[in-house]
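Reproducibility note. Readers wishing to regenerate the assembly model reported in the main text can use the exact inputs given here. Chain order matters: entities are listed in the order in which they were concatenated for prediction.
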Amino acid sequence: MKIRPLRSNDIPSLLELSQQAGWNQTQADWERMIALAPDACHGIEADDRIVSSTTGIRHGHDLAWIGMVLTHEAHRGRGYATALVQHAIDHLRDKVAWIKLDATDTGKPVYARLGFQDETEVQRWERKPGPVEKASSYLIHEYAVDPSFDRAYFGAYRVPLLNALRRDGESCFVVGYGYAMSRPGARARHLGPCVVRSTEAARALVEDVLAKHGGESVIWDLFPSNADAVRLAKQYGFQPMRHLTRMALPCRPDVLPILRNESSVFAIAGFEYG
Ligand SMILES: CC(C)(COP(=O)(O)OP(=O)(O)OC[C@H]1O[C@@H](n2cnc3c(N)ncnc32)[C@H](O)[C@@H]1OP(=O)(O)O)[C@@H](O)C(=O)NCCC(=O)NCCS
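Running the prediction on these inputs yields the following structure tokens for the assembly.
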């Protein structure tokens, strides 16, 4: 078994992996992940193609996020995912305080064996296409990433990710309250991240995204502990589709927890980013 860094010419086989699992990532998503972390996205090759993958994106020195843990159906149960996640941990352990990920029920046992512990629940909600009228009177602007605002709520520095998502998608902003982004996906438009310190401003931002993209299915990944986000999702016709477990691994015995303000995180960036 040989582990090697992912390159952009692996993208056709990587897309096949994410499509086989029914995931929403596009070619642009894989390109973005490899560009954000060229030294921490790895794969295992067989028959001249990547058959197992992981990404590991660092959010400053506090946090790294493992994602895109996928093994081709024909190559499962051979220890590939375990080896890649272990490799990612070894690579990231001395660079950050915490490593986290959002685990599917199939992935969870792999991570638990490697020392990850359950932290909280995240849910994917989905809305079928349908028109949305803009009712909110908030003025919506284009978003220019404000590092200290996002960090105060997300809990770690993720400006390179936010800038990359902004370039590849759309973003909107209510001055003084917060922002929302959305990007194209293979199955549905992805709403998130959305960090806002008022429910009514969050409503204005969600409404802005849905009014522009009423003709598309939209997915929204949220913390069910944020009751306002759940209420908004229901009001706009979203339904819960999947639940995942956020899991965390401290990289040193003395690390302090990352303080995230879940009540203002209306949408996470995605299971592959946190
Ligand atoms: C989850 C997933 C990545 C696991 O990939 P994998 O390469 O098969 O994982 P591993 O082989 O490392 O471990 C999986 C199982 O195989 C077992 N295994 C490991 N090495 C083995 C070997 N040499 N021979 C037989 N079984 C082995 C593991 O013990 C584990 O068993 P479990 O059923 O008790 O958990 C894969 O099933 C997948 O792509 N699923 C769809 C996408 C998904 O949910 N990804 C996780 C996102 S969080």
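We highlight two features of this model. The chain has two domains: 3-122, 124-243+255-267. Residues 21, 52, 69-71, 76-82, 103-104, 106-107, 109-110 surround coenzyme A (CB under 6 Å).
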